[in-house]
Design goal:
mainly alpha, binds fe (ii) ion, single chain, 11 helices
Length: 167
């Protein structure tokens, strides 16, 4: 879960704070709950479910927690919340490499290459994957914009705020 007012940008102190929170969630995570995954499968299309299944256990747990946020108004928002980080499957980085990619991206912006660059680029990659999968525009847009400030979001402010709260 995150703050409502400002989102972590692709670089900067907020990216590091977001990373620190996710890092501790990662090392404490017990893996996705099977009953929760069954519930989510009922909301996803077949192609979305295929993408979800490729996410790491830690990212699937994060997806389920996000989709269950009480701030979300409907199933379209729950699907968008669940799939916002799906672009991370392209990079396939573990916890420590994510720390490295995030810190390096803040300290040395523009120098990341390969999978580390893909990790930093996961919003754009995820949006493209969801578009290819035929996902709703809300899910595509939120994947693309989830690291932007909600003030910069193209979504209605209440929708962006709910989805930001869920992340
Ligand atoms: Fe993300
Ligand atoms: Fe996230």
């Amino acid at each position: 879960m995150g703050g409502l007012s400002r989102r972590s940008p692709a670089g900067g102190v907020e990216a590091l704070i977001h990373l620190a929170r996710r890092f501790f969630q990662s090392i404490l995570d017990q893996g996705p709950d099977a009953a929760e995954e069954d519930w989510l499968m009922g909301l996803l299309s077949e192609r979305e479910a295929t993408l979800y299944a490729q996410m790491s256990p830690v990212d699937r747990s994060h997806a389920l927690r996000s989709a269950r946020c009480p701030a979300l108004a409907d199933d379209a928002q729950r699907v968008a919340a669940a799939l916002h980080d799906v672009g991370k499957i392209q990079a396939g980085l573990g916890t420590w490499a994510r720390v490295g990619a995030t810190v390096a991206g803040v300290v040395l912006p523009g120098v990341l290459r390969g999978r580390w660059a893909d990790y930093r680029d996961h919003p754009r990659l995820g949006a493209a994957m969801l578009r290819d999968a035929g996902s709703a525009e809300l899910a595509v847009t939120w994947a693309a914009e989830h690291h932007l400030s909600t003030r910069k979001s193209s979504l209605p402010p209440d929708v962006a705020a709910a989805l930001a709260a869920a992340d």
